[in-house]
Design a protein that fits this description.
The chain has no helices and ten strands. By secondary structure, the protein is an all-beta fold.
């Protein structure tokens, strides 16, 4: 028996919601239903650019739940699963990926821009690729 990963087609979770996101602000994706696809894991790919010289960072979290509409709250970061920090590099676009193990049935991705300046007016995305395994 040899288990190999199967990667689904990437899906954009956040795009225009991140454009011009101000320092100290945050954005969440729409709730994702993993009930039918039943992906075991996911690859989260983040691409961000700042509107001006920026050496700060954005934090990325996962809100989880076993029922639709009943996800962890964004009111306190301790209620969310921390995924990664993305270090900004001036106005140059930066990319970072993270493998999320044990993807829940329902989830959202939540991005926090930790300090000024704002993100660029375009070119910011968060994508997810579902991952399952097969025996080959």
């Amino acid at each position: 028996m040899s288990l190999k990963p199967i990667f689904a087609t990437p899906t954009t979770l956040l795009s225009t919601e991140l454009d011009s996101l101000a320092g100290g602000s945050s954005a969440s994706s729409a709730e994702q239903n993993n009930g039918s696809d039943r992906y075991l894991d996911a690859q989260i790919d983040v691409e961000l650019a700042s509107a001006s010289a920026d050496t700060g960072y954005c934090s990325v979290y996962l809100l989880e739940g076993s029922e639709t509409g009943k996800l962890s709250t964004t009111a306190n970061v301790s209620m969310m699963r921390y995924l990664m920090d993305v270090q900004m590099n001036g106005t140059t676009a930066v990319r970072k990926s993270k493998r999320v193990l044990d993807l829940p049935k329902f989830y959202k991705v939540h991005v926090i821009k930790n300090a000024a300046p704002a993100l660029a007016a375009s070119g910011n995305t968060v994508k997810v690729t579902g991952v399952n395994v097969e025996n080959v």
